[in-house]
Every structure is written in structure tokens, then in C-alpha cells.
């Protein structure tokens, strides 16, 4: 029997995730009472991931307790960080009342709704109906955001505030974030101040003001606000991330590591442990890095949520702490799904080469080094190239190691974290004196290419300018600075000479790559706007 009041729910495509067959069947029955006919069922996180990879869902209902290896919150985290869900997908987490407070307060990625057991068709229908109402009300904003029209989305926020004040909090949150991304800081401050005038305990608004201060370069003021938030909201994860960001910007890497460590104690997830491991490794806290990466592997063992770099990172730490045998044992237990990855195979062999050098097995080291180079095939993978450079230095191949360091920095010369890791390789290898020559030299070389392309464009040689950047991207296809310059100069060419199908495709490809590499970046957002403005002026009338 279908429940008529929820007729608009019947067209939704749904995924049920629960490790208990009876619970899945009950949920399927409830959805059937709501008229929902397109329902898939997953018994494990890995099965749910496969379903999500194969198609798009309007509604996902997931039980919090899935199995010993992972839970619903960790699965949601994976979906969000891997961009596997549509912005309009509704994710409902189902949990027992006894565990709700812990799950809800310490969740880094919030679902669209929590529902307490036991469930009924009416309860599900009412909750989904409300989510659909909200989704429909915010549609003018989300449609603009999908098109990367963030200035238009801000205007839409004001319109929705007038037509649907019921959703004021959600709209103000979105508007504040958009204004910060557009660097309209004074307007963003007013949004957060207005929100706090309504309720002075709105943590997200205080954090928003801290973000405004960070963008404005007022780091001390931002830190005071964040610390104030944490004094009364010790489980607010976003505040720890901001604190770490501030400390890192002020050069206090140990304090940044401490902030991330505290957040991982609140949300002991794979992602949090990974952040701690990466920060600890960069600062030379190898014991802490080893512990953190070990936790990551525990969280993701036997699951599709595992990432190849987790295993490689822990193996590298073992080598760096003189535990070559343990590194080799770890690298001998590689999941089969990594076997087809050239980047993984290259990095794996490079770390093995370092371990063999440490054990005095020069023959095996040479073989592993050759395997690493062959697997790389001339392509730049940051993890593999840094590991290969370290192996080269350990084997006395200084020129080869130096070239690898220069190449990896040139692959993305604006990436400060990459530069830090390159310096660490040189420091660990006793080649610290080469840092300025190799790293700063590589950065200057990339900047010179961009400067030359700009000069050619100004000298009325646009074709030569674009050719220069295309040539650069051939050897460093994921260099964010060169991609941005290429997008800008191609758009300038079209603004002067008119529409060009190939150049439109190129710019869209550049921006798609940038969205993947540096999601939410302000400069990329401005380039999306430049693309829209340019195309509106030069698009053929037909």
C-alpha cells in the first residue's frame, strides 16, 4: 500500500546500506510503502562503493554500524572526499538512540539527516519530504554553483532569503562561504555578524569570522576566535583544521601537528590519521607518523576505502627509521587492485631499492631501482618520483637524484607541500646544500615560462604565447600555475579574435583538471567566471 502524501518520493532512486539482511528488507518494505520501486541494497561498504561508482542515487539510507572494519560515518567520509555523490544526493544516517550523541557530535562530514531506530515508512517519508522541500527551495543557489557562477549564487542567496526564510541558516552558511571564496571579506563578515545577532552561540558563524581573518592576513585575530570556539566546543572538527592552517602559516609546524592530532582523537578516522601522518612526517616526527599511518591501514584493511599511498607512506617511514626488513615485508603484501597502477609500482620499487641499500644488498637495490624507473615510464608521480630520488641518492646516483628533484618540483611549482617534501628528501640524503639550486631553480624556471608566454601575448604574438604554454603542459600536465596561465591566455586570445572551438575545449579541460587538483581554489573560481564572461561575448549567434 502506497502512502499518497509522499507521492513525489516515489520517483527517487535509492540505495540501502546495512549489513543485516532483515534490516535491509524492512527498509525496502518501508520504501515500497512510499511508492519507491528503484531500490538497490548493499551489505558492505565495498558493495556500496561499487553501486555508487556504477550509478547516481537520489537517496542513500545507511546504517551507522556496518561491520568491524568500518562504519557508516567512515563510508560517508569516503564518498564525500572522493566526490562520488551528486550535490543533490540525500544521505540519511540511521543509528540507535544510545549512540546518536556520539555519532552526531563527532562527525566530520555531516549527513543530510540522522534518523533513530526504529523506523517506519511514515517517519522516512516525512524526513525525505522535508529534505526535498529544502532542496527545491535552495535550487536557484545550487544551480548557479553547479555552473561555477559563484557571483550569481550569492545573488540567488539573497533572493532565497526573501522567498524561503525558513531556510535562513542554510542560506547564510552558503552565502558566507561563497563570499569568502570570492574574497568579498567585508560582506562575508556582515553575514556572520548578522547570524550571530540572531543567535550568539552559532559556532559556524564564529568559525566563518575566523576564516575572514585568515584571508585578510589577520592570523592572530583568527587564532583567538578559533581558540574561543574550541574552549566551549571541543569536538568541532573544522576549528582544529583552521587552527592547524593558522599555525602552519605562522611557521609553527609542531603546533599544527598538535591540532591535527587532537582532531584525530575526536574523529579516529582514516582521513584524520592520514593528515596526522603526513604532518608528522613533514616535521620529522617519524614515530608519530608510523603510528598514524598504521592506524590508517587498520581503518581501511581489506576495504576499497584504502589508498595506495597509505601503504607506501608507512613503508617509507620504516626505511627512514632503519627498519628496512619491516618495509620489505609490508611491501610484499600489496592488494591485487594496485598491481595495474604504474605510479604505485614505481613508488613500491623505489622504496624497496632504499631498503635493499640499507641492508647492503646492492644487486637487489639496482634491480628494484631499474624496475621503478621502468614502471614510471617518464611520467611524474609525486610519491614515486620523491621515493625514486631518495633511492638514487642512497645509491650514489647524485645527478639522477638531482634531476628527479627538479622534475618533481617543476611538475607543480606552486605546491608548497611538495617543495617541503623535496627539501626533506635532500636533507635525509645529506644533500641539503643542493636545495636552493634545485628547488628554487625549478620554481624560477616555471615562472620564466609563464612570464615569457605573457610577454609574447603583450607583444601581439598570441599564437606563439599559447604554443609556449602547450609545450610546457606536455611535460608537466598537472602544474597548476601553468594550467591557470594557459586558461587565462587562451581566453584573452578569444576575447581578441573570437570563438575557437578547440580553445574552448582546451580551457574547459584545464579548468576541469584544476578543479580536481585544487578544489575550491579562489583563482580557479575567477577563471571559471572569466570563461563564462568571455564565451557570452564571443559565442556564435546560432
Automatic annotation (TrEMBL):
Keywords: Phosphoprotein. PANTHER family: TWO-COMPONENT RESPONSE REGULATOR, TWO-COMPONENT RESPONSE REGULATOR ARR22. The keyword Phosphoprotein applies. Residues 13-132 form the Response regulatory domain. The keyword Nucleus does not apply. It comes from Herbaspirillum lusitanum. The modification 4-aspartylphosphate is found at residue 63. This is Tetratricopeptide repeat protein.
